[in-house]
Structures are given as structure tokens and as C-alpha cells.
Design a protein that fits this description.
It is built from ten helices and no strands. By secondary structure, the protein is an all-alpha fold. Helix 3 packs antiparallel against helix 8. The radius of gyration is 18 Å and the shape is globular. It starts with a helix and ends with a helix. One of its GO terms (cellular component) is plasma membrane. InterPro entries: TM_pro_TauE-like, TSUP. It is found in: Cell membrane. This is Probable membrane transporter protein. Keywords: Cell membrane, Membrane, Transmembrane, Transmembrane helix, Transport.
Length: 259
């Protein structure tokens, strides 16, 4: 009876965490800071937890690409897609070949780095937005250097992924992409495609716990729909602060747990 009760509590907690993750992703991002630790807390092994969480949250990224497809810079699609595919697959393959205990010890560092990246993404995004509307001489994007900078970022997405959106936008801006809508749409495309490659790799590798994945996918979708209704009414800086604090607290917990 106690075992049955614990099983039900696992599902209740997973449903709750998935709803929260969906709301967070719709409002500000960072849903993985909640859904990934939730997978770990119900007894899923670290690598399977990361794989299952990636698969569960991916459909929300696909809808974002569909919504932003009109803003994509077509000249850069080949280089962004190539880097996303190569990086996403290689990151996922390396993850599947990482020892569980090694990845578990990397988890707090990954969460902390992702939280810090998320924290500085706001000021940088504001600077990019300001730069895009100020008059200046625009230079064509440097395609080859962009590929070699995007490749390790997309590798990180395939391996873990949280907080990578800021890195993608920074790389694109560094090598000549200046229009804000183009930056955002290419960021979403690169993250979505890298994660799709990771999803396929995880599914083929048998790393997905489907009973948890489907529950998380459904309720993250519901949470995303709910969050989208309120996203415009919330202060973006407040939301970002909440996400960063959440990520840092969870990272601190895993440092304590691993210590």
C-alpha cells in the first residue's frame, strides 16, 4: 500500500512540475530547471531523466518555430541547420556514452552555468534590441566563423541545453546578425533543430522513459498554453529573476546532495 501511495505521489509531482515548466517556458523560459530535477526526484537515472525531459519539452519548441518562420533569414539557414544537426547529434551521443555517476556530478555545474547564462541574457538582449534600431553601417554575416562558433553551442544543447538560447543569440550577433526578429527566430530554429536531433538520438538509443515522458509532454503543453495567456502581463525582469533564483537554488541542492 505504501509503495502504491509513493507511485501515485510520483505522478502527482511530475504532473505539477510539468505544468510549472510549461508555464515558465511560455513566460520566460527555464522550464528545465523544474522538470529535469523532477524526473531525478522520482527515481529516473540522470541520463534517462535528461533524455526524457528533452523529448517531453521539444514539441513546445516546434510550435515556436512555426510562429516565427516568417522572420527567418534564409541566407543563414544552411549554416544554422548544419551546425544544429552536427552539434545536436554529437552532444546527444556523448551524453548517452557518459557514465551515470559522472553526469550526476556534472548536474549542479550545468544547472548553475545555465542559471547564470539565463541571468545575463536579459541585459544582452536589451543591448541587441537597442543596437538593431540605432543607425549604423551593417555588415554581412560571417558565415564560416559563425558555423564554428555555433557548433559547440549546439553540442551543449544536445548534451544538456538549458540556457543555450542566450549563447545562440550572442554568436549570431557577434558575426553580423543584427535585426532582433531575425536573431530570435534563428535562435528558436537552432535550439529546436538541435533538440530534435537529440530527441531522435535518445529515442533510438532507448534512453526515454515513455510513461513519464508522455505525462510531462501533455501537462507541459497545458502549462504552456496557460502561461501564454499571461506572459504579456508579467514583468520580464521579474520572471527572469524568478527563473535564475530557481535554477541557483536547485543547483545548490544538487551540490549539497552530491557532496
Amino acid at each position: 500500500m505504501i509503495s502504491s501511495l509513493n507511485s501515485h505521489l510520483h505522478y502527482v509531482w511530475l504532473v505539477t512540475a510539468s505544468l510549472i515548466a510549461g508555464v515558465m517556458n511560455a513566460m520566460a523560459g527555464g522550464g528545465s530547471f523544474v522538470s529535469f530535477p523532477a524526473m531525478l526526484s522520482i527515481g529516473v537515472a540522470p541520463i534517462q531523466a535528461n533524455a526524457t525531459n528533452t523529448v517531453a519539452l521539444w514539441p513546445g519548441q516546434l510550435t515556436s518555430v512555426a510562429a516565427l518562420r516568417g522572420d527567418l533569414t534564409r541566407d543563414l539557414l544552411p549554416v544554422v541547420c548544419a551546425a544544429s544537426i552536427l552539434g545536436g547529434v554529437s552532444g546527444a551521443v556523448v551524453l548517452l556514452n557518459t557514465r551515470q555517476i559522472t553526469f550526476l556530478h556534472l548536474v549542479p555545474w550545468l544547472l548553475l552555468v545555465a542559471s547564470l547564462l539565463f541571468g545575463i541574457s536579459g541585459p544582452v538582449s536589451q543591448w541587441l534590441r537597442k543596437r538593431s534600431i540605432e543607425p549604423h553601417i551593417k555588415k554581412p554575416p560571417a558565415v564560416k566563423p559563425l558555423f564554428f562558433v555555433l557548433l559547440p553551442v549546439c553540442f551543449y544543447i544536445g548534451y544538456f541545453g538549458a540556457g543555450a538560447g542566450f549563447l545562440i543569440m550572442s554568436a549570431l550577433a557577434l558575426f553580423g546578425v543584427e535585426e532582433m526578429n531575425a536573431l530570435n527566430s534563428l535562435k528558436v530554429l537552432a535550439a529546436c533543430l538541435s533538440n530534435l536531433c537529440a530527441v531522435i538520438t535518445f529515442v533510438l538509443g532507448g534512453a526515454v522513459i515513455w510513461r513519464y515522458c508522455l505525462i510531462s509532454m501533455i501537462f507541459a503543453g497545458i502549462g504552456g498554453y496557460v502561461g501564454a495567456q499571461y506572459a504579456r502581463r508579467m514583468n520580464a525582469n521579474v520572471l527572469r529573476t524568478i527563473v535564475v533564483i530557481t535554477g541557483c537554488v536547485i543547483a545548490a541542492y544538487f551540490f549539497w546532495r552530491n557532496g
